[in-house]
Amino acid sequence: MSFLDDDDGDFLASGPAGGTGGAPKLASLFGGESRGQSDENFQYKAPKQPKKQKASAAGGDAAAVLQAAAVHSYKYTGDQAVNQGKVGAAIIGSHASKDYKLLLYVGKQQAVATAAITMQFNFLAQPNNYASFYDDQRQRWSICFDSALAAWDFSKHVAMAKFNSAGGGILMVPQDLSMGDGMTLGVGDQLECKYTGWLMQEHTIGKMFDSNASSDKSFRFKIGKGKVIKGWDEGVVGMKKGGRRFLVIPSSLAYGSQGAGDRIPPNAILLFEVEIKKVKFTKEKEAEAAAAEAAKQQAAAAAAETVSNASADSDIESRGRSLSSASLPEQSPAPGSQKAKLLSRIAKMGQSVIPVVSATDIGDAVDAGTTASHQQEAQPQAAIPVGGAVPVGMAQQPQQQPGMGMQPGGQPGMQ
User: Who has the most CB within 10 Å: 58, 96, 194, 366?
Assistant: First the structure.
């Protein structure tokens, strides 16, 4: 399923002023009828490229669209991602009831997937503006935003919805915007970063109180040394160089009831976007990393050598089979086959009709004939005993020759 750009308005924009045409009725998708107001159209009034929308402190339990964007969706079947086309993605919630959902929807009335946003909800940032999550049916989804900014803004609102679902408690919510590369940061490691800080006001991003994003210098500190607020010491653990993370920090992990001057009031909930620019790991971690890299290279070299040896053995075996096939005589055809019968007939056709007598046989016959001649002169001819020698001149049975009446298997050179 796919949609033209003109249909993006179904996901994001309201209809003409004063009318309801083109406005997505997300209240019905969120829970049927709203608790505080009936038949209310919850509209995200923004152009096709979505911008952040401040959630009003609406009274009652009325649900509101906190953030929306047009995304490309992919539904997983096993490990295979199946393209579901362009859909709307929205974060809908009620600050009064602390009930928040992530909604994928088509058009104005058709929900595709819903996922309750709680502190346990995991919205995983992925490369190339992708993010993945599981819906309420444990179905895995992956969505792709049109830009990195759109993906980051949506992820920030997911993090704030998670924090608000717990009633703004004492737990910090870290939400990765982009993952970075290399080893992860831990206690004792040093980093340089760019950051921007806001106050959380009316359950969403409020006034910015500090930033070095436009400065040439990065902020440097060592994790776990108490040089920054506790929310930072804990919030950057696990990040990588080049990574970007959004932190929702409760006042108990920030400046508490004292606040910080005029910019941060007492009991303020702080929001930070942090980007890691440089890292310096402890000597122990660097040594472990070097050993791990050496072991990885050795394993790769061993694997390459194994593949090379296996290839060489295969070549030798192939050559041996070729030489063996070339040295062996041609296999004789099976007895009784057409080829065997043809070869037998050819052998018979080239053979003499008169049997060939050996020199020994001729000598024996001459001797026998001479003896018989002397005996004829001395006495009358005697009867030839059965099995005796056959004199020359008497009919002699042809001797069996090689190839006559023999199977092709008995010929020389045939197996």
Answer: 194
Average pLDDT, the chain: 76
Q: How many C-beta atoms lie closer than 10 Å to residue 14's C-beta? A: 17
Beta strands in 128-269 (DSSP E): 130-134, 140-144, 173-178, 190-201, 204-211, 219-222, 244-249
pLDDT at 300: 86
Catalytic residues: 195, 209-210, 229, 255, 272
- Which percentage of the chain shows pLDDT scores above 90? 50
DSSP 203: T
Residues with Cβ < 8 Å from 82, sequence gap 6 or more? Answer: 74, 75, 76
Q: Which of 20-29, 167-176, 216-225 has the highest mean pLDDT?
A: 216-225
- Token output for 62: 């009325």
Q: What is the DSSP string of 22-47?
A: T---HHHHHHSS-SSSSS--------
> For 112-123, what is each residue's pLDDT tens digit?
999 999 999 999
Beta bridge partners of 144: 72, 130
**Stated pTM of the model:** 0.63
177: number of Cβ within 10 Å: 21
Instruction: For strands 99-106 and 64-77, give the pairing.
Output: unpaired
Q: What are phi and psi of 205, to 5 degrees?
A: -65, 125
